[in-house]
Fold Protein kinase domain-containing protein.
Amino acid sequence: MVEYIDPRCHKITRFKKDKNSDIYGLGVLLWEITSGRPPFSDYLRDASYALSIKICYENLIENPIVGTPLRYQQLYQKCWDEDHNIRPDIEEVYEILSQLSQLTTDESLDLQFNNNVEECQNCDSDFNDSKLHELSIGPDSKNLLIIGLTSCGKSTLCNVLSETDVFRESESSVSETSNHQKKYFEVDGTKYCVVDTVGFKHTKLSTKEILDKIEEGIYSMPEGISQILYVIDGRFTKDEIRIFELLENIIFESGILEYVTFVKTKFGNFKSQTERKKEKYKILEGNEKIAKIVNSCKDVVYVDNPPINIRIYDDDDRDDIERNKKTRTKSRTILLDHLEKVCQENHFELKMWKELYPKIIKYIDDDIEAKLDKELEKINIQE
Ligand SMILES: Nc1nc2c(ncn2[C@@H]2O[C@H](COP(=O)(O)OP(=O)(O)OP(=O)(O)O)[C@@H](O)[C@H]2O)c(=O)[nH]1
Ligand SMILES: [Mg+2]
């Protein structure tokens, strides 16, 4: 019955099913009504573990059946959306089904879905694209995990790396990315997979929810991680120091720093070696613990990825966009040169995260607020 179970039940340790999980199963049933057969019937029934891995980590979903009214199709796709916040509640499902049942045959024909290639609406994972690429890319891609505080430029970095605009860049002070998003791309024969994640200190999510979502991002790359790009957009802030303080023992024990590159974004002087050196010196000087972390990681890379989603009112705006595009191209070259050097053949083993995660959760369960305050106090005393 794995086909009907909310993927979060498999992905998230100690996940408690909720109404949203039932809506997921209902979405699968709604699809089944149009197909007349159980989902994923090509898969062996006795290989349910393999099937759950495919559903959870390779975004395996069923294709719409030709002739399905678009509104009906959109309804079940919304029900099984990876982002459980997007799933409708049962009242909404009832409402849409009632409306559809009242349509005449002619009206429902007008709603027919013509070519079955419409983009997965409201879906953070660029499923259609990744699904296509999975066919040619396979497990030998260099997997990049992007993490950092909210608004530090993670999604922008993903767009720059993959030369797309599929990652939503925030235009406000409210956190934009609320789910991980994955994209495959290729550079001179090297295959990459970049996974954008939810920012620490997300404006609407708790620390535990953020960690759960980052875990989902990690598990979306079952082969492991080639490099973690930890994005910072200024000096290390107290919040960043707190995150590292919180994870310090766990991170150091795991050997994960071998796989971490700090990416300093919004660094206008990124082309100047002197400025880069000065900046690194400032980082190292700032805090002993941060210096230890930075020295143990792969490197610090400096970039500037200024916005190109600027509204155009006059020629100045057009010039800005063109200039910013060029700056992004330069940043991309720096990033790719670095990645070529540091992406090891071996991946960071997922089982390590499996071992780490319960420890992190335990740490959080043990009264996170009190611990954070204590850590902050310690930092304040040192400053
Ligand atoms: N000048 C400049 N602006 C940047 C850079 N990177 C990101 N920005 C801007 O910073 C803001 C936040 O960027 P995002 O990429 O959405 O940041 P994020 O970390 O994905 O944010 P959340 O998803 O909300 O956690 C946007 O307005 C970007 O245009 C950079 O290197 N230089
Ligand atoms: Mg984002």
